[in-house]
Design a protein that fits this description.
Blueprint lengths: L1 H6 L7 E5 L3 H4 L8 E7 L9 H23 L4 E3 L5 H11 L3 E5 L6 H6 L5 E4 L12 E3 L12 H7 L8 E5 L6 H9 L1 H5 L3 E5 L5 H9 L3 H4 L2 E4 L6 H7 L2 E4 L3 H10 L2 E4 L8 H11 L4 E2 L7 H10 L3 H14 L4 H13 L5 H8 L1
Parallel strand pairs: 1-2, 3-4, 4-5, 5-6, 7-8, 7-10, 8-9, 10-11, 11-12
């Protein structure tokens, strides 16, 4: 949204959400953007229950609803990140002759994105291998991420209390199941802290155990361990300050470690269609990350990898490989493509392909 505002401050934007999604809480008040909601649910139920029958019915009901909504809003273009919600919107947009841009954030395209491929005008993807799923229809944009502009490494390290001679290990689990990561950290604290300063985003549920673990450490090591329930506005600073990152392998995490240019140990979330495994494997194959399967992550395994990556030369080679993969301008690229679609101008992505 910010990239669109930067390009066109006078642009009118509105948001369409679905039932069960967080967007209703985040923008549903209408204070941020005009907000409309379809009856289809933004998130599907993974378990076998009544919603397996009801969700397709909701999609069907949402198609005329989306048709009416698009007729009322009269958008020049539509941007969607796929999912169940995108199907009725894209169908209605196609019928009304409105261009659509779909973004796919994982190496393995989701089922909904693959289903939308023939309906969408253009598809943006985060990873080059994903282009094969949409021959002639897609371009590589990268993943829109938070801005790291103006964040100076030395100042951020000082802000986190990291002396110049120390190396900072940042561990965070994102929104998916931090229990595995926390257990590995707690079991290897003494070995990790012998070589690293540790900034550990343990989540609210993990803070009690993290504080107990710190209280049990000798004073010299306890000072090197900084557990936090979350970082929120300081996550960008933490990534810039870090020498090594341990985290999941969602599209945003992969994009941010690449944009910053920092070595990482990625532990893919093992569910959700194994999308994170493919994301992590792509970075690992490029020499930009170490990959540890969730089921094999133990305290010993984490400690061994962190010990090996304490060598500056090894990490610097990984960081450089990550930096080569980074696409920090992804949000701007998507915004330019969407505006070109809306204004019926030549598409920047097609111009880039011709130049290449």
């Amino acid at each position: 949204m910010q990239a669109l505002r930067d390009a066109r401050p006078d642009l009118e934007l509105s948001y369409v959400g679905g039932a069960r999604g967080l967007e209703g809480k985040l923008v549903g008040s209408g204070d941020v953007l005009p907000y409309d909601q379809l009856v289809v649910r933004s998130l599907r139920t993974a378990t076998r229950d009544v919603h397996l029958v009801l969700d397709p019915i909701r999609v069907g009901l949402s198609v005329p609803q989306a048709w009416w909504l698009i007729g009322r809003r009269r958008p020049a273009a539509i941007f969607t990140t796929g999912g169940y919600l995108a199907l009725p919107l894209t169908l209605a947009a196609r019928a009304r002759g409105i261009p659509t841009l779909v973004w796919e954030g994982n190496v393995i395209a989701g089922r909904s994105t693959r289903a939308l491929a023939r309906l969408a005008t253009r598809i943006a993807v985060s990873f080059p291998p994903t282009l094969a799923a949409f021959p002639g229809r897609a371009f590589v944009s990268g993943t829109p991420i938070r801005s790291f502009a103006g964040i100076e490494r030395r100042a951020t390290r000082e802000g986190f209390g990291i002396p110049p001679e120390d190396r900072l290990l940042l561990v965070f689990g994102g929104s998916q199941a931090v229990t595995t990561l926390n257990s590995a950290v707690f079991g290897s604290l003494d070995r990790l802290l012998d070589r690293w300063r540790l900034l550990h985003v343990a989540g609210e549920a993990g803070m009690e155990a993290a504080l107990r673990a710190r209280a049990a450490l000798p004073a010299g090591l306890a000072d090197r361990y900084d557990p936090r329930p979350f970082l929120t506005d300081r996550m960008a600073e933490a990534l810039v300050a870090a020498d090594l990152v341990v985290g999941r392998a969602g599209s945003s995490t992969c994009a941010e470690v690449a944009a910053v240019g920092v070595a990482s140990i990625l532990v893919p979330y093992p569910y959700a269609g194994s999308h994170q495994r493919a994301n992590a494997a792509w970075l690992g194959d490029q020499g930009a990350a170490r990959v540890i399967a969730d089921e094999t992550l133990t305290a010993d395994h984490l400690a061994d990898e962190a010990t090996r990556l304490r060598e500056d030369a090894i990490r610097e080679a990984m960081a450089e490989a990550a930096r080569r993969l980074g696409r920090p301008e992804a949000a701007r690229m998507i915004a330019e493509e969407l505006l070109a679609l809306a204004e019926r101008r030549p598409l920047p992505s097609l111009s880039d392909e011709a130049a290449a």
